[in-house]
Design brief:
290 residues; single chain; 34% helix; six-stranded antiparallel beta sheet
Length: 290
């Protein structure tokens, strides 16, 4: 605390720590605002990783979607530690909401995730894939009008940064993503995954919100990976969640073959919006007309 990064950002306190480094609450002394500053330990950031981090931080900063955390700056400290500066958000992670409420009513779950679907559509349109979508990376915040706004965190840099050292993903050439939300192609170790991986992970998160459990379980890492690759999840209707139409939407998102999934995030979001309209909803949780 008290250290000044890049002559501008004064570190106040650590608000998160992981295997790659730490996230600080910092004060931007130039603009006189609070920001979140993620410092990556240089022994965990190879030259290639820094280059990719910069490239993807730039990409995330260009998306400009209300449900994607804003990236303000990127650089290195005098000691060579890469850092990213992002908007500082007050809110509760979706994982915390799940821990408290166990499951959400179908209309609430769909309404909450539709802004995230919209954010992923915007990102995919720019060729950016999240690769580590999970409840921990979705923060529920409120905007200036008091409306609830889900914010997608670590966007475009998720494959390089980890907030959970117990379930960390790795750098180039290795498996990317948190194990519980990995797509079958990630679980098989495929490096070049596309937007279909986000369709899968989004569907896993939706399944978990609806049922209170993840679709694939395993006693250990290997058992979980095998379940993702080989097992079919129980339909949500068997777990007293949703209806046949919503179950079909989720099941298609969890198809093992990418060709059998929703072809795009827009297709999946459109199906969910149509389901929501049929069930009396006119707006998503942020107040955006469906």
């Amino acid at each position: 605390p008290g250290s000044v990064i890049s002559g501008r950002y004064r570190l106040e306190q650590i608000i998160g720590r992981g295997g790659m480094g730490a996230v600080w609450l910092a004060r931007d002394t130039t603009l006189d605002i609070d920001v979140a500053l993620k410092l990556i330990r240089r022994d965990r950031a190879a030259t290639e990783a820094r280059a990719r981090l910069l490239q993807e931080a730039r990409a995330a900063a260009r998306i400009g979607h209300p449900s994607i955390v804003r990236v303000f700056d990127f650089g290195e400290t005098a000691a060579g530690d890469p850092f990213i500066v992002m908007e500082f958000l007050h809110g509760e992670s979706l994982s915390s909401v799940l821990a408290r409420r166990q499951r959400l009513a179908p209309a609430v779950a769909v309404s909450t995730l539709l802004p995230v679907a919209s954010a992923l559509v915007a990102a995919h349109a720019k060729g950016i894939v999240h690769r580590d979508l999970k409840p921990d990376n979705i923060l529920l915040t409120k905007n200036e009008t008091g409306a609830l706004v889900p914010k997608l965190l670590d966007f475009g840099i998720a494959r390089l940064l980890d907030a959970d050292p117990e379930r960390r993903f790795t750098l180039a050439g290795e498996v990317l993503g948190s194990p519980d939300y990995m797509s079958p192609e990630q679980a098989r170790g495929e490096v070049e995954v596309d937007a279909s991986t986000d369709v899968w992970a989004f569907s896993v998160v939706l399944y978990e919100l609806l049922t209170g459990r993840r679709p694939f379980l395993g006693a250990n890492y290997n058992a979980l990976i095998m379940a993702i690759i080989t097992q079919e999840p129980a339909p949500i209707t068997e777990l007293a969640a949703g209806d046949a139409e919503l179950s079909h939407i989720v099941q298609r998102g969890l198809a093992k073959r990418t060709a059998d999934r929703w072809h795009t995030m827009r297709d999946l979001g459109g199906a969910l919006a149509a389901w929501a309209i049929d069930h009396g909803l006119n707006e998503d949780v942020s107040g955006t007309a469906l």
